[in-house]
Structures are given as structure tokens and as C-alpha cells.
Amino acid sequence: MVAPPGDAATLDRDVRLAVYRKIVDEGSAPTVSEVADGLDITTSEIEAAFHRLAENHVLVLAPGTSSIWMASPFSAIPTPFQVEVGDRRYFGNCIWDALGIPVCLRMDGRIRTSCPDCSEPLSLDVRDGSLDASADRVIHFEVPAARWWDDIGST
After folding, report:
1. Where are the alpha helices (DSSP H) in the chain?
2. Average pLDDT, whole number, for the chain?
3. pLDDT > 90 in the chain, percent
4. Residue 73: cis peptide before it, omega within 30 degrees of 0
């Protein structure tokens, strides 16, 4: 169901659902045109919704565009945090988001990344909503969570 004309909150909800459905189902973020076609509304309405969602930290748009860069915990571009869930591959924006992808999808998953110090390949498993504690790993968060949105693109 598409939002009635003039109801920005409902439209934003519908747009958000369309974005996440495409990411989950296909592993890639939709364009403004794809969402507009899917919801049968204008691209200008979708662009406005994308920007409202970005202002509310629901989406992150590529700088100076209306293209989705992040729909947390999913990255719309390849990153060093590849997440395998079932037969699908996703990218997390950071290790925190990568760990969240299997949990959000309520499925087991494996995160493949590398040590930022020595480049050794690393993998972490998420099973039944929890990090597999049998792995001897340390996760480092350089920026405190309270400051992530100070510069979300480099966090």
C-alpha cells in the first residue's frame, strides 16, 4: 500500500521498507527510480523521502547525491566486511554492522574480513543471534559509539 498524497511519515515508511526489501532480497540498494517505479510515485517524492530518511539517520546518502550509500547495517558499496547469510552476500559498513546483518535477518552468518594491522584473513560466525565465542578474536572500535554520527562515513 502506498502512502496517501501529503502523508510524509507514511511515505517515508513505505520508502524505507522498499529500500530494505531490495537490499535483503537482491543484495543491492535501489535507485531513486527503482523505488519510484515500485511505489508508483514520482522520483522527486522519493528523493525528498531519501533526504528526510538521511536527516533522521535512517539512510546515509553518498555525499551530494540522492544515492544510498548505507542503510544500516547494510552498505550499498563493497567494504572490507563481507557477510554471508544463506546463499546471499552483503557488506557491512563496519564490523559492528557486519555482526548485525545475520541478527537482523534472523539467520546464521559468517563475516569475512582481514586484520587491519597485518592483513591476515579473519572470519567470525554468528549463530542463533550471537557471536560464536569459540573464536579467539578482539573487535576494536576506534571511535566511541556516541560519536559515530559526527562523521558516519569514516567511522
Report:
1. 8-26, 32-39, 43-55, 95-105
2. 90
3. 75
4. yes
| Predicted pLDDT at 138 | 72
C-alpha cell of residue 110: 559468517
Write down all domains in the chain, each with its CATH number in brackets: 8-69 (1.10.10.10), 75-145 (3.15.10.60)
- Residue range 83-101: mean pLDDT, rounded: 95
Residues found in the chain: 155
CA distance 141 to 101: 18
Q: How many helices (H) and strands (E) would you count in the chain?
A: 4, 8
Average pLDDT for 149-155:
66
Which long-range CB contacts under 8 A does 109-112 form with residues at least 24 apart?
A: 109/83, 109/84, 109/85, 110/83, 110/84, 111/81, 111/82, 111/83, 111/84, 112/81, 112/82, 112/83, 112/84
